[in-house]
């Protein structure tokens, strides 16, 4: 046999601490057909700085779809199918790099996914640039060993083969036809090259993670050994591996036979139904009434044929709506006739390669008036690759190499729902059959009507009122995840274990919005001291900060007066510009120079915020530059007057020192104390401290400016402004 090795690699990704599925880094690989060995090379590394500590990286594997993980231990939505993912842990302790190998023998062909993440996030809100987080990198490479000339086992034909040695197992494959109800495998005439009784082990099927349904058969001696399988995967190659359990230098000769039992589906008249559907949509035309007559007359004639067949296939149309959004429409109407003789089968096509990143939802609704027998139950199974053709009361829903998902409806419980999270890329089948209790009359003539609603959605229920459905991308592959808010958690944001109450949400909104009213004293002080431009900036900041936080709330207490992104930009711009104009006002520059710096600084701040809205230097840069200007101006004033500036000790004790203290406390709260849990009151404290510090730091008005005296100005109707030039040239 000729083996070919292939290597696939993807670029490394920086890992994140886990809080929702978007924090997990996804790797997508495609395993080719006839692969006999798959080896993953997992490389994890961390930085060398002092901030880097020992860390445990969790890596999840799954075939066919992204792995369904739950590192936080939250609840999944009701009626959702959850099967634990296969995962390993990689520890980065003293070593900077860790290399791990994972081997999979006889892997299933198709899509394979790897998801890696760090432990649960601490919930601390870090200001970008204040601290340097440790980079943890992860890279996954894939090696495959593929057999180029794998022998094909022809169904129904006994074929001799030879196992050369225990170190070189025999690999063959057989193609499973469509509508195969069962498979029978037989191994006979097993003898070694030393003419002794042989011992071999036969493995049927491929390994899939997290669950593998590979069948094993051990044959000893010259007797025949066989294995029967129900519902093998349709229209797929099935690998068979034979291993010798004998001595190392002895070959083994065997004869293998594979045969299939094919199920004859009932007639569905799907082509005629499709024509009639198009005619009903296009409207009446000449000959339309005559053309629909054969379809109507053909239904009674096909009824006996459908009951004598092993399944009744219902025609289903796949309708693509959007990315990871599909609706399935039955051509014969939403109601499916179900009897007890043979199951009714619906094909749900999810094999495009882009459907595994959402949630498959199947909803069944029983028409109670259609069931003639009391206590009758309609059993249903949703399975991938092959349908369940024999439904019984045990509701096992297992096929040859997979485990399906059971459903049931009855007169006492007429509705059932199933949610398959991240369904694997394959053909999915919905099987329905009527089950009658013993002694309840003639079950063969009974029939039930079940309305079927099936669709693929990015996020189930759109993540609910406390979540946001986000479309994620890894190269060209798209998948969806829910980002929860207001303390809600879970896959679809349905876990209310840590959820905030409505009262807490209202309190958070009131604190974050009403705390901005503390800018009113600063505005009043600025107006009183004739700093009208500064007062306008504070008013702008107070307004947009109030409505930005009213729109930014995660719960039900939300009000947005404009687009969220616009409100956020205006809030950030107003905050930085308020600090800029306050420090420049303290510098006591000439008016023309001060206003030029106001405008120029505002334009530069607007540009920097557009480039990086959350960068720490967007705030620290203007602050430091304004402080440099202020210190230079104060030194110039002090040197000119030959004493310290400001000269009054009362100004330092009662205004500057309290204002500087409040500003430093505000920066400390903003940079080091905010978390997701305490954000609503720590950020409110930030609002209050900043607004109060502005009121303390604003300098007194110019000496030649008189306080506002509206009564005096209104009595002098012919003169609105005071002429300062007379004072400048007055002789004393």
Automatic annotation (TrEMBL):
The chain crosses the membrane at residues 592-611, 617-636, 652-673, 679-698. InterPro entries: EGF, NGX6/PGAP6/MYMK. Residues 285-313 are annotated as: Disordered. It is found in: Cell membrane. It comes from the Eukaryota. Belongs to the TMEM8 family. PANTHER family: FIVE-SPAN TRANSMEMBRANE PROTEIN M83 (PTHR14319), POST-GPI ATTACHMENT TO PROTEINS FACTOR 6 (PTHR14319:SF7). This is TMM8A factor.
């Amino acid at each position: 046999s000729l083996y070919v090795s292939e290597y696939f690699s993807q670029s490394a990704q920086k890992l994140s601490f886990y809080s929702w599925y978007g924090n997990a880094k996804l790797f997508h690989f495609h395993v080719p057909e006839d692969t006999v060995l798959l080896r993953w090379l997992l490389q994890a590394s961390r930085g060398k700085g002092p901030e880097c500590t020992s860390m445990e990286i969790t890596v999840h594997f799954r075939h066919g779809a992204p792995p369904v993980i739950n590192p936080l231990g939250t609840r999944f939505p009701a009626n959702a199918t959850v099967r634990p993912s296969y995962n390993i842990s990689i520890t980065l302790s003293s070593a900077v790099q860790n290399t791990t190998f994972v081997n999979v023998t006889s892997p299933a062909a198709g899509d394979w996914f790897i998801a890696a993440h760090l432990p649960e996030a601490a919930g601390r809100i870090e200001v970008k640039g204040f601290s340097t987080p440790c980079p943890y990198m992860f890279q996954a490479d894939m090696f495959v060993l593929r057999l180029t000339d794998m022998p094909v086992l022809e169904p129904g034909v006994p074929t001799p083969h030879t196992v050369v040695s225990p170190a070189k197992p025999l690999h063959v494959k057989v193609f499973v036809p469509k509508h195969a109800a069962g498979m029978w495998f037989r191994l006979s005439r097993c003898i070694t090259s030393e003419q002794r009784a042989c011992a071999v082990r036969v493995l049927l099927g491929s390994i899939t993670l997290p669950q593998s349904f590979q069948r094993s058969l051990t044959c000893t001696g010259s007797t025949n050994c066989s294995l029967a399988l129900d519902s093998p995967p349709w229209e797929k190659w099935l690998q068979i591996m034979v291993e010798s359990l004998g001595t190392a230098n002895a070959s083994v000769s065997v004869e293998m036979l594979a045969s299939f039992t094919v199920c004859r589906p009932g007639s569905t008249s799907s082509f005629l139904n499709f024509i009639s559907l198009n005619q009903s949509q296009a409207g009446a035309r000449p000959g339309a009434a005559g053309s629909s007559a054969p379809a109507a007359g053909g239904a009674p004639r096909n009824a006996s044929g459908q009951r004598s067949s092993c399944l009744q296939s219902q025609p289903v149309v796949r309708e693509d709506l959007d990315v990871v959004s599909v609706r399935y429409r039955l051509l014969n109407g939403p109601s499916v006739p179900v009897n007890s003789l043979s199951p009714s089968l619906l094909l749900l096509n999810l094999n495009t390669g882009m459907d595994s990143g959402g949630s498959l939802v199947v909803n069944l609704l029983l028409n109670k008036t259609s069931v003639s027998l009391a206590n009758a139950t309609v059993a249903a199974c949703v399975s991938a690759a092959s349908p369940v053709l024999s439904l019984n009361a045990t509701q096992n829903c297992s096929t040859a190499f997979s485990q399906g998902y059971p459903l049931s409806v009855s007169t006492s419980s007429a509705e059932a729902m199933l949610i398959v999270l991240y369904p694997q890329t394959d053909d999915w089948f919905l099987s329905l059959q009527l089950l009658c209790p013993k002694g309840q009359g003639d079950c063969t003539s009974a029939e039930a009507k079940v309305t079927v609603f099936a669709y693929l959605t990015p996020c189930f229920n759109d993540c609910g009122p406390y979540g946001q459905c986000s479309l994620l991308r890894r190269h060209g592959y798209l998948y969806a995840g829910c980002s929860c808010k207001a303390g809600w958690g879970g896959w679809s944001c349905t876990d209310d274990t840590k959820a905030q109450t409505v009262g807490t949400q209202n309190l958070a909104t009131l604190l974050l919005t009403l705390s901005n009213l503390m800018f009113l004293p600063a505005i009043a002080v600025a107006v009183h001291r004739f700093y009208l431009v500064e007062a306008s900036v504070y008013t702008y900041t107070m307004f947009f900060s109030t409505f930005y936080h009213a729109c930014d709330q995660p719960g039900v207490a939300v009000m947005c007066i404009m687009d969220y992104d616009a409100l956020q930009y205006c809030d950030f711009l107003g905050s930085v510009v308020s600090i800029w104009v306050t420090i420049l006002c303290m510098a006591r520059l000439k008016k023309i120079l001060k206003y030029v710096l106001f405008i120029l600084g505002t334009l530069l701040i607007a540009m920097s915020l557009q480039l990086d809205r959350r960068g720490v230097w967007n705030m620290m840069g203007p602050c430091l530059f304004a402080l440099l200007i202020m210190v230079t101006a104060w030194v110039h004033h002090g040197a000119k007057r030959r004493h310290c500036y400001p000269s009054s000790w009362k100004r330092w004790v009662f205004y500057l020192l309290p204002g500087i203290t409040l500003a430093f406390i505000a920066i400390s709260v903003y940079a080091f104390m905010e978390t997701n849990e305490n954000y609503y009151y720590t950020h409110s404290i930030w609002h209050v401290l900043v607004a109060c510090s502005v009121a303390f730091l604003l300098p007194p008005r110019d000496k030649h400016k008189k306080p506002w005296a509206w009564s005096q100005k209104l009595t002098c109707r012919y003169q609105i402004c005071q002429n300062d030039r007379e004072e400048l040239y007055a002789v004393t």
